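Journal club side-thread
Mid-discussion, someone asked how the predicted structure for our own chain would compare to the paper's figures. Pasting it here so we can look after the session.
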Amino acid sequence: MIKDEIYGISIDGKHLNRKKIFLLILIGVVLIGIIIVGKNSIEAKKQQKVYEQYEAQTATLAKQEEYSKEKEETKQNQQITLPQLTKEAKEKIQNIYQTEKKQVFLTFDDGPSTVTPGILDTLKKENVKATFFVLGCNVRAMPDTVKRIYQEGHYLANHGDSHSYSSIYASPQAVLDEFNRCNESVKKAIGEPNYHSHLFRFPGGLVGGKYATIKNEAKELLLQNDIIHIDWNALTGDAETANPTQEFEIQRLEETTNNKTSIVVLMHDAQAKAVTAESLPQIIKTLREKGYEFKNFYEIMK
């Protein structure tokens, strides 16, 4: 009997140890399998990395596209929410009560105050846009409310800075100065350095009173500075008595809107006018039942 060891394989004559050969073959197959799997794993990782890079590039492009879209929308919104006093706008405001279709502009003076958010909530619920003739002193006290007014699409108009008649009506220039101080405060509150409402309401209204001459002279000075004034031809009477009721306000609205096609309604959102906020849902309902379409000064000052 001849025995040798060849690479750890026992040879007995011409016969090999089949078990050991099988084991070696199996080990070889496993090794080959591991190599193949390793190569596939490496290739898969490379493909995954390429895919992730592609996804990252796609996401970046999508963000850039979204940013460009948002930038364009912001630009368009700024064009909408930055009023323009064109020749056509002047004519429309000067003839605002001469329309064939029934329309109504809701306006609030003397705010903002803690009453204003409740008014904004109702306007949002009823999908109505209004105009707020704000006071500069109150704008500085409640800038977040002013910003909300602006962001929710209501028109920010100007009611002067102090509401002190002796100060604002000291001279025509004093009126313009108060407008400018209020406008600067609005700019800061809403974060829009180019904002200019171009729309003013004289405290107490333009017509009559001991300051009538100053007011009329100021009206011309304001117009020379691209500022136009607007009064009202309807009201809720919330400034006519110290403690108006909801019933009183609706009654005064009925009385002052009777047979008028186009109306600008005077209301107030000052601190003492909580009843106006409470009456607003019924005010809107009453005007709708009368067939009025709610308008916003952005539709004119564009």
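Post-session note: Residues 3-63 form one domain.
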